[in-house]
Amino acid sequence: MFEGEVALVTGGSSGIGRATAVAFAAEGAKVVVASRRSEESGETVRMVTDAGGEAFFVQADVSISADVQRMVAQTVERFGKLNYAFNNAGVGGNMVPTAEYPEDVFDKVVSINLKGVFLSMKYELPYIVATKGAIVNMSSVAGLVGGRVGVAYYASKHGVVGMTKAAALEYADKGVRINAVAPAVIKTPLTEGAGFLNKDTQLGAMMLARHPVGRLGEPEEVAQAVIWLCSKRASFTTGHTLPIDGGVLIP
């Protein structure tokens, strides 16, 4: 599907990012794995190459403009172009009420989850316009509904939805499609660290109960949605935020 094309995945060290990097490679794309974590990202690169694909790692913090510029420049220097980007890097932040939320943590979450997507699109778009490619941004069901705690996460993910719509309108007539995905709880190191995956705890049981399908999501299920949104099969889809939520948003 993507033979000879180039895909950049931020936050590619684990979870959804890793699964998407592997999925892009399985479809024939050359893959750039970007993240702050070199050891884990190296494992993602090995998974791609062991399966016969081509990939390399760029260390980058998406909240830092110079890092993002270098990330994109190294991608184009290595592979000569950029067709697709999955702007996935993100953090969770604190789960406390708004009045108790630390200002420094708020700034960190917004810098990575929201500004990081902005910076990524800013420097990716000139090259993606040239290839008439596609971008997928990482939002969340938290970008489509409210919640009782975690104000910075909800704010950042709502912001991603708005930026995706704005950029999609700006670049629609240039042959570039820009969409977002909005997963519910997916089995990743991030959600495991937050305590969401242990169904024997009150928090874990509550998270599981929120999903009408009776289970949590797998990273590969989100990855396949990203692949579809980048593919020609989604050629008439832009500015859309696609829930991958096991029915969470139905009620």
Automatic annotation (TrEMBL):
Name of the molecule in the record: Short-chain dehydrogenase
Keywords annotated in UniProt: Oxidoreductase
Any GO molecular function: oxidoreductase activity
Family named by the database record: Belongs to the short-chain dehydrogenases/reductases (SDR) family.
Originating species: Ramlibacter tataouinensis
Domain of life: Bacteria
InterPro entries membership: NAD(P)-bd_dom_sf (IPR036291), SDR_fam (IPR002347)
